[in-house]
Amino acid sequence: MRSSDIIRSIIILLLFSIIYSSIIVSDTILDMNKEWAKYRCNPLFMPFASAFGHSNIDNFKYCVSKISNNNMPDLMGPTKLNIDLLGKMGGNLNTNITSSNGFVSMFRDNIMNSFGSIYGILMGVIAEFYKLSVSMKDVLGKTIGVTRTLVYTLEGSITTMESANDTAFMRSLRKISKLKGKSKGCFSGDTKIKLNTGDYKRIDEIEINDTLEYDTHVLATMKITNITPGTSDMISSVYMIPNGDNDDILVTGSHLIYDNVLGKFVCVRDYRDSIKTKRCLDVVYCLITDNHTIPIGEYIFHDWEDTPNKSKDIVR
């Protein structure tokens, strides 16, 4: 048998195989086209929608819309743009694949031209896959950018909240919340307090900017009820502390007084020289000073902001 006969036999077998394969593919395409709704969003068939008589771009948009349900349209805008690009690339790829149908007729005419067409198709497919990889890289980069933007936005929000939490307003709110429900100590209105001039004033007559002894400046004065609203019950019991010629001091038991023996502030009710009385003070008075102390006679009391670690060193 001559070599030319062998070549012709091979060519005939190839042609038969191609024709047979084309028939099988055509039947498969017809079957799938009947059930297109079932397969149209399958990733394996989406790029070849035009082969089933449907637009690649329209089919791709339908599937994307079905999957995403129109969630986050603004955030997914860049991704949608790239998806459209992928759809166009799929259309180009499908066009190249469709153009390969002409390869059968060209193969019958000229084997060399057929090989040239195959080479061109392969190069076209490679080029499209390269474009696809570049587009996917771009989509990934934009997704990372959006994610970073969200992270930076969250970090900025957290920083803003932390900054707002550290403002004077928030500190005041926290301070007020700590004071809520806390029983503050106060004095009877006729309690006499010595000024830096040597004169005495009742505490209910003390004014803002008065200067007490030991150069203690008055920042605020307060008049406070000692009766629980809606009842006749006192909020704080009244204690008496002897004060020599300056009259006894009537003060609520929750007020803080400096104990020279212990070297710290203690509640009046726990002070060794205090005596609990049955006196009822409907209204009590207190001060806020620059050093958070109120000197009365031989005693040092804390002011309204009775947190011991706020007061300055006791100097007598």
TrEMBL record:
<feature type="transmembrane region" description="Helical">
    <location>
        <begin position="6"/>
        <end position="30"/>
    </location>
</feature>
<dbReference type="GO" id="GO:0016539">
    <property type="term" value="P:intein-mediated protein splicing"/>
</dbReference>
<protein>
    <recommendedName>
        <fullName>Hedgehog/Intein (Hint) domain-containing protein</fullName>
    </recommendedName>
</protein>
<keyword id="KW-0472">Membrane</keyword>
<dbReference type="InterPro" id="IPR036844">
    <property type="entry name" value="Hint_dom_sf"/>
</dbReference>
<keyword id="KW-0812">Transmembrane</keyword>
<keyword id="KW-1133">Transmembrane helix</keyword>
<dbReference type="InterPro" id="IPR006141">
    <property type="entry name" value="Intein_N"/>
</dbReference>
